[in-house]
Specification:
Rossmann fold; two-stranded antiparallel sheet; 12 strands; single chain; 8-stranded mixed beta sheet; 6 helices
C-alpha cells in the first residue's frame, strides 16, 4: 500500500494546515472551511498524477492538438459533515466525477469513555470498476473509515481506491492499512500525527473539524 504524507515536503499546503491547527484562528469558520477546500484542491492535483490517461485530439481555431487527459471514472465519497468543504476542493478539479455521501458519526456512552460508530445516511452511485476516492478530513481511530468502506462495497468493487485526509494519526494509518486491499489502495495525508487522546482525538491534531467548520452540536 502506498502512503503519501504530503506535509513532509515544503509547500503551501503546510501553511493551510498550520492555520487550521492554530487556536488563534479557530473562531474564523470561513477561513477554516476555505483551508480544508484548498487542501482538497492540492490533493486532487496530486492524485491526478497517478490516474490513467488517454490521448484525444482537440480542435482549436487554428488546428488540431493531441492532448493527454484522464480516462478513469471517478467517484468522490465524502464522510459528513467536516468532509463537505474537503469534497468541494476535490470537485473543483474532478468536476465530472460522480459523488457519494455518507453519514458516520461517533456515539459516546454516558461518561464519554467509549464510542460506537453510527451510520445514518448513504447516497451513492455504483462504484464497480471505478476509482473510489474516500474523503475524510480526520483519520483518527479508523472506525468511521472502516464502516464507510464496508458500506460502500454494497455499491460494487472499485478498481482503485484513494483515501484522502487532512490529518491522520499513526494508529489510523495502521488500521487503514489492514482495512483496504493493499494492491489497489493509496492513502494521502496532509500530515500524520503521532498520538490519540483518551477520547480518541488526534494529538496534536486540531480539535473537532466539524465543529470548527460549522459550529458546535448538541
Amino acid at each position: 500500500m502506498n502512503i503519501h504524507n504530503l506535509g513532509l515536503n515544503d509547500s503551501i499546503l503546510n501553511q493551510f494546515i498550520a492555520e487550521m491547527r492554530d487556536i488563534r484562528v479557530h473562531n474564523n469558520r470561513m477561513r477554516f472551511r476555505r483551508n480544508i477546500e484548498r487542501i482538497g484542491e492540492i490533493m486532487a492535483y496530486e492524485i491526478s498524477k497517478t490516474l490513467k490517461y488517454q490521448t484525444v485530439e482537440i480542435q482549436t481555431p487554428l488546428g488540431v492538438k493531441p492532448v493527454s487527459v484522464p480516462c478513469e471514472k471517478i467517484v468522490l465519497a465524502t464522510i459528513l459533515r467536516a468532509g463537505l468543504p474537503f469534497h468541494q476542493g476535490f470537485l473543483a478539479y474532478f468536476d465530472e466525477a460522480e459523488n457519494a455521501f455518507i453519514s458516520a458519526s461517533r456515539k459516546y456512552n454516558e461518561d464519554h469513555s467509549a464510542f460506537t460508530i453510527e451510520l445514518g445516511y448513504l447516497s451513492s452511485p455504483s462504484i464497480a470498476g471505478k476509482t473510489l476516492i474516500i474523503i475524510d478530513p480526520m483519520l483518527a481511530t479508523g472506525s468511521s473509515l472502516d464502516i464507510t468502506y464496508q458500506t460502500m462495497l454494497k455499491k460494487g468493487d472499485p478498481s482503485r481506491i484513494h483515501v484522502a485526509c487532512v490529518i491522520a494519526s499513526k494508529h489510523g494509518i495502521d488500521v487503514a492499512s489492514q482495512i483496504f486491499p493493499e494492491e489497489k489502495t493509496t492513502i494521502w495525508a496532509g500530515a500524520i500525527d503521532p498520538d490519540l487522546s483518551d477520547k480518541a482525538y488526534i494529538v496534536p491534531g486540531l480539535g473537532d473539524a466539524g465543529d470548527l467548520a460549522y459550529g458546535g452540536k448538541l
